[in-house]
Specification:
This protein is 32% helix and 20% strand. It is built from 13 helices and 14 strands. It has an 8-stranded mixed sheet with strand order 10-9-11-1-12-13-2-14, sandwiched between helices. Strands 3, 4, 5, 6, 7 and 8 form a 6-stranded mixed sheet that branches.
Amino acid sequence: MKRVFLIVLDSFGVGELPDAAKFGDTGANTLRSVAKSQYFNIPNLIKSGLGNIDGVDCIEKSDAPCAAFGKCAELSAGKDTTVGHWEIAGVVSEKRFPTFPNGFPEELICEFSKETGRGVLCNKPYSGTEVIKDYGEEHIKTGKLIVYTSQDSVFQIAAHEDVVPPNELYRYCKIARKLLTGPLGVGRVIARPFEGEYPFKRTANRHDFSIEPTGKTVLDAICENSLSSISVGKIYDIFAKRGITEYYLSHSNTEGMELTLQILDKDFCGLCFTNLVDFDMVYGHRNDADGYAKALSEFDGWLPSFIGKMRDDDILIVTADHGCDPGDISTDHTREYIPLLVYGKSVLPVNLGVCGTYSDIAATIADYLKINYTCSGKSFLDKIILT
């Protein structure tokens, strides 16, 4: 019974890509910034070979890595969550999703306001924590929705849970998703509920409404072959519910890790795909290197408990979807390589070098599960498992 566990440490980049300058990310390196923190303590990831990855020079190397190790370059024209996860699953996005540095067109905002029955505040790029500080009280007084964006292709709606309950906010997001098509087709519509009194605090009831993948993913292929495709965290949202047979939503890294460990006890054949979002949402975007380091150390401490329970035929892949360097001046994602660590009782601890696309992961998963699936990636299964 072959099972693959794929865990995405959301935003854990390991150094700038060659084209980082085109994205304004020269010198970006999430790992390097986090490694400077006094709270950085990842002995298990170092033992795995994280420091042995080509180009990684900010942490120590292992004399005898216990996992196959390498890194992947991104082919897609972007650096956000949606295109990163899609490429991991085999779909390369050749065109960037539209962004709105001057806010969304007035015609769209008017139509959105008409369909929701509520006015709109802000409508421009903004930090998610700052926007509720600056517009939260006016929102409470007027009932108007706080709409904002960022350098990513997102339409975000913030609302106080006492004014707009989460389920109502999700309904407004679905309205926005319906309107945002064609040239306005952003990658994600995101519900951003908050609570309390000024300066307010965002809650864990965030929900993403993604555009559907533009091609066939390895998740689709897994389902077509009547295998299990289980998601944990926001994977269900990122793939617009497609290619998933069973899903578990989580509200934190800790909960996501607990759920993934529970799924390890299930009998299934196929894939368990987990996203740990706190690295990006809570720490990367807030330029909180210490918080990021603590979260990474928590994952590192959890890792042996998972590996210790893996079955003989299980494979674990740990990777990321983009960077979000907490040490740069921006609060946005960064164009970086992603790490690739592969564990399993039959996995050889070899250097996989540099994969040309994130989709090598999808090709390898399909190869291991013996399903017919073609994508831009190339399987590295023959390098890590002796047949």
